[in-house]
Amino acid sequence: MRLVIAGGHGKIALLVERLLAARGDSATALVRNPDHFADVADAGGVPVHCDLEAADAASVAEYLAGADAALFAAGAGAGSGTARKDTVDRGASALFAQAAELAGVRRFVQVSSTGIGRTTGDDAFDAYLRAKGAAEEDLRERDLDWTVLRPGRLTDDEPTGRVEVVEAPATVRGSVPRADVAAVLVALLDRPGTVRRTYEVVSGDTPVDEAF
């Protein structure tokens, strides 16, 4: 498998790259800052310079050409303003999905968030949830074999290998290590039966390999 990852230097993306490299698959990582190339290479990925806030769909499609799947794992990140929540968490997702269509890459997995449709009173976080929700809506209208994964509160704890997965509109509350989310994403890529479905995931009792 050759996977192309948007947000290729993110914590989850680097973990996915390590998992794929360990089993002999490859990941091309779209990275905004060339200073991060070494981290991606150390994780087993192939870094390429691509700023999704400045690129157009045709140029991004060139990186996707010949790939087996695409993973959107980019995010504006903590501390970013509401404007970047829209340009990255929504806009970059839509651009990446459009590029996948242009490149003929049908399998598309998107990292979203639990709490879609909820209002918390935190302006920045609510803007993030709105952007993620809009990105999901955009993806569902596209002719792609998409799957959306909504993790709970992310931690850097050691992986447990066990999760609780529910299919939307069911919801779950809780936290989950990024390493377990990465394992779930790899599992989703391997399972065509998850196409056009939306899942929420937190830590639980079910082994990742049995979650779907």
From TrEMBL:
Listed SUPFAM superfamilies: NAD(P)-binding Rossmann-fold domains
Organism: Saccharothrix yanglingensis
Annotated NAD(P)-binding domain residues: 7-192
InterPro entries cross-referenced by the UniProt entry: NAD(P)-bd_dom, NAD(P)-bd_dom_sf
Top-rank taxon: Bacteria
Protein name: NAD-dependent dehydratase
